[in-house]
Specification:
Layout: E1 23-26, E2 46-49, H1 77-80, H2 85-94, H3 103-121, H4 123-126, H5 140-145, E3 156-160, H6 167-175, E4 184-188, H7 189-202, H8 209-220, E5 223-227, H9 234-249, E6 253-258, H10 276-285, E7 286-290, E8 306-310, H11 315-326, E9 334-339, E10 345-352, E11 355-359, H12 360-364, H13 370-379, E12 382-386, H14 396-408
Parallel strand pairs: 1-8, 1-12, 2-8, 3-6, 3-7, 4-5, 5-6, 11-12
Antiparallel strand pairs: 9-10, 10-11
Helix pairs in contact: 2-6, 8-9, 9-10
Length: about 425
């Protein structure tokens, strides 16, 4: 979903002007607050306005390339004499696409450059070349003939840090410098898990479907880059340990970004004891690196401003603006049913011309998850939310769903 809730999540770099449509109404007198460690809703990303002065129809939002950092941090000649994310970083600075970086982000780029160099040197051993002959990795017989795991000689990288510290951009700098013929994949974590559950459904009659799923994943990509690694769903938590045991055994190299340190993943979740072995495996197979920057770079570009309307009795006003977005006289919004996954449907109270209208409680106060939101985003490019409450311990589940809704909305690179 290209334009939904842009101000609430870390932007990926965008290199052209775009129209951004975002309307959210909060019936409370203040913006939502933080909920625990996993909810990162920053009210400073919005400009608070009186609804009477707002002209949504004519307002243009612009998106600019997000600066990597603000303070000078130079690279050595040795570092720029080779290919990789550090070279691309310097090129973008030279071209004015980025400002010179702070020490925290350059340290992270150094880690990514180290991994890049190791992968290039070990490409044959790791069987990264898609055109090279590779062994059969999946299947019941192979998994039983293989007497020992074939771990990759190269460890992956787990990057974590606060929101807005540039994790996604840094990983993209790394990923898009890798050879195009490599068996590599970059995907959002929620999208990845949605694919995993779909594949498990397809292989549910087998004795160990996770082994087959891991084989299919590793046949497609040896280098797996997962953006915004965040475990909130018990079904995901129970699958991850066994899935990644198989994946690591098949030589998968994981690069991940997250807001949380490995030890804090799925903190307080149901049956977390069954998830703990995954954390141990993650720390064993990946170098863990914290991005220590305290600056939220999302707030440094005009492209991340949106409108957050504060006040009471605004529902009628919001629906008028919703009709303006659709286009006067071009379409009448009607209730719709959207297909999500595995034959399930999601009810949309009002929708037309790629715009959907939801009261907050109908999309975040019901037992919905990432799969439902992905299905919604495939059909609608603009989402209007009415009646966002003040978040607190009394509605923590709704707050987490709101974060998931924001988190899974795909943005253009």
């Amino acid at each position: 979903m290209r334009n939904v809730l842009r101000s609430l999540r870390q932007l990926r770099p965008a290199f052209q002007r775009q129209d951004c449509v975002l309307i959210i109404v909060n019936v409370a007198e203040e913006p939502p607050c933080h909920i625990g460690k996993s909810c990162h809703i920053h009210s400073s990303a919005f400009r608070f306005v009186d609804h009477a002065e707002t002209n949504f129809k004519n307002h243009l939002f612009t998106t600019t390339t997000r600066p990597l950092s603000t303070d000078a941090a130079k690279l050595t000649n040795r570092e720029t004499s080779k290919a990789g994310p550090l070279v691309e970083y310097e090129r973008r600075i030279t071209n004015g696409e980025l400002v010179e970086g702070d020490a925290c982000q350059v340290d992270t780029l150094t880690e990514l450059q180290r991994l890049y160099d190791e992968l290039v040197e070990s490409a044959d051993v790791c069987q990264l070349d898609r055109n090279s002959e590779k062994p059969v990795r999946s299947g019941w017989l192979w998994s039983r003939l293989l007497s020992h795991p074939s771990y990759s000689p190269v460890k992956g990288l787990y990057l974590y840090g606060g929101v807005g510290t540039g994790k996604t951009m840094l990983m993209d700098l790394f990923f898009y410098q890798l050879p195009s013929n490599w068996r590599k994949k970059r995907i959002h974590f929620h999208d990845f898990m949605l694919n995993v559950h779909s594949m498990l459904q397809k292989h549910k009659g087998l004795s160990d479907p996770l082994d087959v799923v891991a084989g299919e994943i590793s046949d497609d990509a040896i280098l797996l880059c997962l953006d915004e690694f965040m475990v909130t769903d018990v079904a995901d938590a129970l699958v991850l340990n066994r899935l990644f045991r198989h994946l690591f055994n098949k030589g998968i190299i994981l690069v991940a970004t997250s807001n949380r340190a490995p030890d804090n993943l799925y903190e307080g979740g149901l049956q977390r004891d069954l998830f703990l072995p995954f954390i141990a495996a993650l720390k064993e197979r990946c170098v863990v690196h914290e991005i220590g920057s305290s600056i939220d770079y999302r707030k440094m570009t005009s492209g991340e401003q949106g409108f957050y309307l504060v006040g009471t009795d605004l529902s009628g006003f919001l629906k008028e603006k919703f009709q303006q977005l659709i286009g006067e006289g071009t379409a009448t919004p009607t209730p719709q049913e959207v297909e999500v996954v595995m034959g399930r449907t999601l009810h949309v109270p009002l929708g037309a011309n790629g715009c959907a209208y939801f009261p907050f409680e109908e999309i975040c106060d019901r037992p919905l998850g990432a799969a439902d939101y992905f299905g919604l985003f495939k059909k609608f490019h603009t989402l209007v939310l009415d009646g966002i409450p003040i978040f607190g311990l009394h509605n923590k589940s709704a707050a987490h769903r709101f974060v998931t809704l924001v988190d899974v909305s795909p943005l253009p690179f």
